[in-house]
Amino acid sequence: MKVTMQGIAYLIVVFVTTCLTSLAINLVWNQNLIIALAFALFFGSIEILFLSSYSVKILKGGWIPLVLSAVFMVVMYVWHYGSRKKYLFDMHNKISMRSILALGPSLGIVRVPGMGLIYTELATGVPASFTHFLTNLPAFYQVVVFVCVKTVPVPCVPHEERYLIGRIGPKSYRLYRCIVRNGYKDVYSHANDFENDLVMSIAEFIQLEAEGCSGHAEGSADGRMAVVRTSGKFGTRLLMSESAGFGEGSNISLPGTLTVTSSKSPTLKGLQSMYERESPEVNTGRRIRFELQNVTYKDSRVKEELMELVEAKRTGSTYVIGHSHVKAKWNSSFIKKFAINLYSFLRKNCRSPVVGLNIPRISLIKVGMNYHV
After folding, report:
1. Which residues pair with residue 115 across a beta bridge?
2. Which three-class secondary structure state does DSSP give residue 155?
């Protein structure tokens, strides 16, 4: 039976390779179609003869690899089908930036100190989970970053080409969009690495934009993206230093820098320090501090925006991610309901996006969403 399983798998691979080679002869090498067909008929007929001889032994145990292949094919197709339906639902129900920006700089809500990172699969527009969150709690952070993580078909993406940063709306809105391009072998070793890189990348984008290197001066509904961390001027306005044993409210400054203090109230600082003492896994002893250099800027708004970015990071970052429940519509066919239910079962038993994206649970907010596809 083992020989039969290996023979069937090998011959199927060889037959598929012959078919793809015939296509390459015609489409890639630009040879005559008759030559491609002759190649496929000659070698394909020989492989079909060998495959038919092995097919006689299917009833004697060779059906096992065929059943396993069918099961894996169904699982992969259901996963692709459910993921595509979920993405199309997000695309159809996303909120246009024009309606969001029409609310004004405050977005019609209370802006509180801090930085909010909105995880979404959409590269444009506002996800429905964000508006759902604001509907139930009309308050959000002073700096908002829509983060979209994309996996590209390369092993590793160079660090200087990983972040695409753009602005949403005018500068006073403090809305940014970040597209993170990761290779399938890229991982983050520490939870704070992404936050630090994101803050430095946004600071670089603000400087490039002020010099007229990216986008428009006052932004747009969903502005152009710029690859950052490629400029030689990176980090000249914002310094990052590592310290240990100091709390968030410690007054530490570097020579020639401008200290930005946290806007958290003493009560919130006390509650956070108490929580960190009770949770040893949170207090790792590795703290990154950002300092804004006390230099003269051509545009005073650049300095103000950088100070607000540093203040928001020092106050704290919060991750907002959608916790979706995918369900089939009531009038869907039996096959579609079976596929969606199987997709939901697979999602519940797979690795959570929080784990995959290395999001710290202390700063996580999940927004429940029902997807009726």
Report:
1. 143, 317
2. coil
Locate all alpha helices (DSSP H) within 154-279, ordered by sequence. 191-210, 266-278
Chain segment 51-69, per-residue pLDDT in tens: 887 777 777 766 777 788 8
CB distance 275 to 269 below 8 Å = no
User: Tokens standing for 108?
Assistant: 């019609």
CB 140 within 8 A of CB 317: no
CA–CA gap between residue 77 and residue 84 (Å, rounded) = 10
Q: How far is CA 147 from CA 93, 119, 166, 344, in A?
A: 18, 5, 11, 24
How far, in Å, CA of 15 to CA of 10, rounded?
Answer: 9
Distance CA 245, CA 70 (A): 57
Residue 168 contacts residue 176 (beta carbons within 8 Å): yes
- CA 203 to each of CA 64, 221, 229, 243: distance values in angstroms, whole numbers, following the listed order: 58, 20, 10, 21
The closest alpha carbon to 167, from 116, 213, 219, belongs to 219
Average pLDDT over every residue of 241-268 = 49
Per-residue H/E/C for 43-109: HHHHHHHHHHHHHCCHHHCCHHHHHHHHHHHHHHHHHHHHHHHHHHHHHHHCECHHHHHCCCCCCCC
Q: Cα angle at 18 between 12 and 20, to 5 degrees?
A: 105
For residues 138 and 90, give the distance between their C-alpha atoms in angstroms, rounded to a whole number. Answer: 21
Contacts of 350 (CB under 8 A, 6+ apart): none
Given this model, what pLDDT does residue 267 score?
65
How many whole angstroms separate alpha carbon 361 and alpha carbon 21?
A: 50
Quick check: pTM over 0.85? no
